[in-house]
Write a structure and sequence with these properties.
Elements lengths: L2 H9 L4 H19 L5 H15 L7 H16 L10 H12 L3 H18 L17 H82 L4 H26 L20 H6 L5 E6 L7 H21 L6 E7 L3 E8 L16 H12 L3 E6 L5 E8 L10
Parallel strand pairs: 1-2
Antiparallel strand pairs: 2-3, 3-5, 4-5
Amino acid sequence: MHPVPWRGRDRARPGGAVIAAFCFHVFGAWGLARAVAPPGDLLACALLLAGPIALAWRRRAPLAVLAVALATTIGFAALTAPRWPYAAAAVAALFSAVKAGRRRSAVALAAAGWLTWALVTGPLAARLGLSQAAHTDPRAALLAAAALTVTVLLGGAAKARAEHFAEMMKVRAERARAHDEQERRQASEERLRIARELHDVLGHHLSLINVQAGVGLHLMDSRPEQAREALSAIKSASAEALREVRAVLGVLRPEEEAAPRQPALGLDRLAELTADAGLPVTTTTSGDRRELPAEVDRAAYRIVQEALTNVRRHATPGATVTVTVAYADDELRLSVRNDGAAAHPGERGPDGAGSGIAGMRARAQALGGTLSAGPDPGGGFLVCAALPTAAVPARGGA
């Protein structure tokens, strides 16, 4: 619930206190006003109605309305017998002033009004020439003081409740904004993840298709059997690319997503990846092989895939690749080294800048790991990654 609709409903009923005070004054004290001898009855009726009418401005000028309500109440009390209904406007004005945060001024006005009323209708009644019916006694004065005190306490409680309610609405609004911001951030991270997945899938398979197509064109006339094998590899790579693109884009339509018809990407499919790499690849595994968290398994596969793609794109012809997978106690270590003589374009230097390296590094960092890439001292290019497997932090990203 937002605080604005609440305020709107409160403002839509500004006459509630006016109508209530009007009913108390008219039905509870109208007979007293008409009993005053003419022309005092007209003045009494005017004083009786002035208090409820003034309540219409209690939100704009709470202290002024309280002063008017107290004055009309004292004036009416000086003309008629003591009755509590004609003090309804003064009580409502006092309550509103305290609730509006004017407690000290309202208490001072109420105390002054009560003292004036007690003196006018008590010790000074005879000197002012008031009728015997307008006189009051100490008991009534004490009851009036108690009523005013209770009104002040109720007004303070209402103010505290309103402040608490406003604070609750503020907290709920902040939570709603934080929730919306989190959803937007998650949507942005999901779009980034999909973009990275598409980059990996298309970059890997299209580069493989490009290599195999070049082989096929080169061997079309001299060795048609090998050209046919290259075409078969192109067909398999394109079909695999289409399947992976559908799997990635299927995240956008989870309600229509069918059950996967192939194993999830991970190191279990590393042999397929290296077999279709289009260049000689040697794979070495060390340590006790174990089941990895799904996100680590997938990230490892994608890092190796992107590294092989970069080798096909940038390494010198005839380069060979060595992929090493090491299972440590609390992390998975990967290294992809090629013995090509040239470094990757856009990846020269110690920082290894470039979109492919940046994507791999983002995957590793998203899991709390590290990735380094650069020229190997022994020649070629080396990509090393360390992915924690004990406890994967939830950082979003890849």
